[in-house]
Amino acid sequence: MKTRNKALYYIKLLIIAAVSAAIQATAYTTFVQVGGFYPSGFSGISRLTVNIVEMFLDFRISYSFLYFGLNILTAIFVYRQIGKMFTVYSIIQTTLFSVFVNYFEPVIVVNEYMLMAIFGGVLNGVGAGLALANNFSTGGFDFLSIYFSNKYNRSIWNYVLMTNACILCIAGIIFNWETTMYSIVYQYATTQMVKLMHKRYTHDTLTIITSKPEEVTKSILSKIRHGITITNAEGAYLHQKESVLYTVVNSFQTQTVIKAAKEADPKVFINVQNSKEVVGNYYQLPLD
Predict the structure, then answer these.
(1) Alpha helices (H) in the chain, listed in sequence order
(2) Cα dihedral: 62, 67, 70, 72 (round 10)
(3) Are 214 and 173 contained in the same domain?
(4) From the first residue on, what is the mean pLDDT of each consecutive set of 10 residues in the chain (288 residues)?
(5) Last residue of a domain, one of 163, 197, 231
(6) Rounded CA gap, 105 and 100, in Å?
(7) Residues 141 and 247 in one domain
(8) What is the value of pTM for the model shown?
(9) Rounded to whole angstroms, how far apart are CA atoms 253 and 217?
(10) Sign of the C-alpha dihedral, residues 232, 228, 205, 208?
């Protein structure tokens, strides 16, 4: 990447990080604070800690300071196992979020808790999804998940879910079960929005039928780094000789592959299916 293009790319990421942080800060101040909800991850841990300390010790600690501190400590711990740029821009995002939360004033948009939970969760998910779609994150458990995935080749999402469940149970026991239940809706809406926007760890299987296998294969491999299996076939109606190309790619690469295949063979036929699981030697594009 040329120096000028690289600089523009970094500036673009900085703007996206700021927008992502502003969206999440708006979701927090407008819906979480007003509704009394508990988000997932470090945000939920920080909010719960602040409320417990204030209730039992009559002492107010800063949510944004605690949230920022947890993310910095985690980033230092996992830095060597995850991408440099991923870490840097994730820290920028969490730093800006911590600043924005202090300056954004809570605004009552609606008085219905269910609506607050749904729209707040969706808004928070948009902020998180925007970051993840551009190869950085909103910190917290994302750092730990990628760290354990890269170092030990195992997922810790079950532990993440257990931690979030513990946050909600503690909040319900100490404070209020009603708002805790709405917090589940908030977290679910966030998760669904992130799934919709973030396709890095989802896969598609492409079955490509073409009479130009060499040209199509060359075109696809110029865009992605995944293996392609070629088998000979015959059309049942016209009995023409065809080739079937089989490949698995990340979901965010699917349209790139389709475009490349159609450039080489405008008459190509492509079937796209969601892949539930991929086992074996699969190349995962590393984080920067």
Answers:
(1) 3-27, 33-35, 41-57, 63-78, 84-103, 113-133, 141-152, 157-174, 177-197, 213-221, 254-264
(2) -100
(3) no
(4) 77 94 96 94 94 92 94 87 85 96 91 95 94 87 77 68 91 92 94 82 90 95 91 90 93 91 96 86 71
(5) 197
(6) 9
(7) no
(8) 0.80
(9) 15
(10) negative
